[in-house]
Amino acid sequence: MKIEPAERVKRLPPYIFAELEKIINEKRRRGVDLISLSIGDPDFPPPKFVLEALAEESSNPNNHNYSFSQGEPEFKEAVAEWYKGRFKVDLDPQSEVVALIGSKEGLANIARAFVNPGEKVLIPNPAYPVYANGATILSEGIPLVMPLLEENDFKPDIESLVEKDLKDVKMMFLNYPNNPTGSVMDKKSLEQIVEFAEENNVIVCYDNAYSEITFDGYKAPSILEVEGGKDVAIEFHSCSKTFSMTGDRIGFAVGNRDIISGLLKVKAQVDSGPPRYTQRAAVRALRSYVNGEPPKYVKEIARIYGERRDELVKGLKRLGLECKKPLATFYVWVKCGESSMKFSQRLLDAGVVATPGIGFGEYGEGYIRFSVTQPKDKIKEACERMEKVL
Fold first, then answer.
1. Which CATH class is domain 48-286?
2. Fold of 7-45+296-387
3. Which of 109, 99, 107, 112 is nearest to 123 (CA)?
4. Of 21, 39, 182, 234, which sees the most CB atoms within 10 A?
C-alpha cells in the first residue's frame, strides 16, 4: 500500500530546525551542558492565585463535561471586561468574543473559515511560521510575502503593498509586539493598516499575544482601538505569555462579529472548546486587572524580563553583535552577518542554543533570535561562553 500525503501537506516547506535539533539532541545525549536561549516559553510558573484556581476548578466534577465550542459565557464576559479596561474597546461577549484552545489554534482555523483555494494571504516575513504554513498553505491559499525590513523598523511597508497586484488577496496576518524581531506598533501605523484593509477588502488577523510584556514605558495597543478597526479585523490573544499559562492552552479571539462567526463555524466542526476548568481559572486571571492595570505578578515578570534583556544586549554588544533593546516581547533579534544556521551551530559548540532567523522566513536570514526566558546569571554565562567562539 502506497500512502501519499495530500498536496496541501506536500506544499509545506521543510522543517528548517530538523538539522539543528539533531545536533542539540546528540550533544545532550553526550551530556553537554547547554544553555537554551531559544524557546519562547516563559520560565516562570503561573501566579499562585491562578494555580489555586486551576486546582479548585479541576477538582469540581461539573467542570469535566464538554464546554461550549464558542466558550463559556463567564469566560467571554471576562474577556470583554478585560478589553474594556485594558484597551477601552467595547465588545459584545455573545457575538464578538470566541474562546480558543490557545491562540495558535485560532490563527490556523481563521484561514480555513475564509480563504478559498488559490486565494492569497499577506504574510509577514520573518514571522511565526503558523501564518504561512498552518493557516495559509493548509487552507490551500497562496502566501504573499510582506518583507519586514530593519530599515522600516520591521513593520510592513504599506505604501509598497498598494503598488502590488492585490487581486485575490483575502487576508493579512500581523503580529505586534513582534515575534521574532521584538518590534512594536504605534496607533498611526495601525490606522494606515486599517485604511489599507478597508480599501482593498482584506481581513486583518492581528496577533497581539505579547501585548503585556513591554518595557521602558511602552504600552502595546490593540488594532481594535483604531477607528474602523472592528470593521476589518479580528485580534488574537491568550493567557500564555501574560500569565505564563502556555501549557494550559487557553486563548481568545475578538473583533468583527462576521469574522468571529466564520471562525466559530469552523471550530464547531473540529473542537469542543477549551476545558471548563481552564476557562474558569482564566476568568480569575483576566479579572486580576483593575481598571486596565495589570496585577503585581504581570508587572513583576515584565520587570524581570526587562532586566534580562538589558543583560543580554549588553553582553551581545560587548561581543560586537548589532542589536537594539526591544520595547516588548522576551526576544532579542540580532544581526549575525552570516548564515544563521552556521552561526547557530557555532553557538552550540560553546553550549548556547539560539534560534536561526532563517526559520522565520527568507527575510530572517542573517539574524539570530535569542529568548530571555532564562535567569540573569544564565544569560551572563551564555554571553561568556559565546565570547569563546565569536
1. alpha beta
2. Aspartate Aminotransferase, domain 1 (3.90.1150)
3. 107
4. 234
Q: Are 274 and 250 in contact (CB under 8 A)?
A: yes
Task: List strands edge to edge, sheet with 142-147.
Answer: 97-100, 251-255, 233-238, 203-207, 169-175, 120-125, 142-147
Say if residue 310 is exposed, middle or buried (CB neighbours under 10 Å; 0-12, 13-18, 19+).
middle
Q: Where do the CATH 3.90.1150.10 domains begin and end in the chain?
A: 7-45+296-387
Element counts in the chain: helices (H) and strands (E): 13, 13
Q: Is the pTM of this model over 0.85?
A: yes
E strand or H helix at 314: helix 296-318
The backbone torsions φ and ψ at residue 205, rounded to the nearest 5 degrees and listed phi first, read -105, 105
- Three-state DSSP state, 388: coil
* Residue 7 CB contacts under 8 Å (≥ 6 apart), including other chains: none
**Residues 70/267, Cβ–Cβ less than 8 Å:** yes
Q: Name 145's Cβ contacts closer than 8 Å, sequence gap at least 6.
A: 123, 125, 361, 362, 363
Side chain identity, residue 322:
E
- Would you state the cell numbers that stand for residue 136, as one nine-digit string? 495559509
Q: What is the pLDDT along the chain (390 residues), one digit of tens a residue?
A: 999 989 899 898 877 766 777 777 887 888 888 999 998 889 999 999 999 999 999 999 999 998 988 999 999 999 999 999 999 999 999 999 999 999 999 999 999 999 999 999 999 999 999 999 999 999 999 999 999 999 999 999 998 887 777 889 999 999 999 999 999 999 999 999 999 999 999 999 999 999 999 999 999 999 999 999 999 999 999 999 999 999 999 999 999 999 999 999 999 999 989 999 999 999 999 999 999 999 999 999 999 999 999 999 999 999 999 899 999 999 999 999 899 999 999 999 899 999 999 999 999 999 999 999 999 999 999 999 999 988
Torsion of CA 88, 92, 93, 96, to 10 degrees: -90
